[in-house]
Amino acid sequence: MDAIRIENLVKKYGGVTAVDGLSLSVPAGMVFGFLGPNGSGKSTTIGCLTGLLDPTAGNIQILGQRFTAESAALKRRMGVMPETLGLFEPLRAHEFLGFVGRMYGLEETTTRKRVGELLDALELTDGSKTLAEYSTGMRKRVAFAAAVIHAPEVLFLDEPFESIDPAGVALMKQWLHRLVEQGRTVFMTSHVLETVERLCQEVAIIAAPGKLVWHGDITTFGREGAISYDGKEFDALEPLFLHLTGEKHVELGWL
Description:
Blueprint: E1 2-13, E2 16-27, E3 31-35, H1 42-49, E4 57-62, E5 65-66, H2 72-75, E6 78-81, H3 93-103, H4 108-121, H5 136-148, E7 154-158, H6 166-181, E8 185-189, H7 193-199, E9 202-207, E10 211-217, H8 220-224, E11 227-229, E12 232-234, H9 237-245
Parallel strand pairs: 3-8, 3-9, 6-7, 7-8
Antiparallel strand pairs: 1-2, 1-4, 4-5, 9-10, 11-12
Helix pairs in contact: 3-4
């Protein structure tokens, strides 16, 4: 079964088209990478997939059901870590995570237990600080914890590892692998292509305005050493990405 299915998705802001007829299927039970240059429509697409934005046109299915911004039951089965994080910064970490757990319908005892476990694991136990007083990396840890506290069936992550230290990234990857082992699906964007190549099973690459330019199985790199495309051999994700999205060579006379 496909965990996510997108058919002819269009999103316009006034006269500007951010996503133009995107169609894509994401099988259940994998980490799926959704890549593209800045301004290509990645965050807009995730906004539409999670109900943060209303599509202009097109159809979205999550877990086999049609999804709209009003699909409350489906939203409870999803986890979201948006690029903007979406934190209530006057709250402390335990207060915010407790609120999120209750919002997803977890029982009070379950919420307290999971909040304590997440805070301990992510080293967020200083209850004296509000989220506004945290560093960017610590706020991102809280946002990640909020996205996984209810063990979602589909998890959306927009640039999850940026500003987080290596130990935190390693722990997050461990949890993502655990979700996938349980048949759950992770849909993530990242500009760190080496991480995507190691973590994801399939990747879709888009270019502005939100048009699909490539979708494939990147475990081929590990099995066969290279991916063939457009008459060329690519031995890693980065050169393939640059080929598809337009590699630039700029000389600076002073550098």
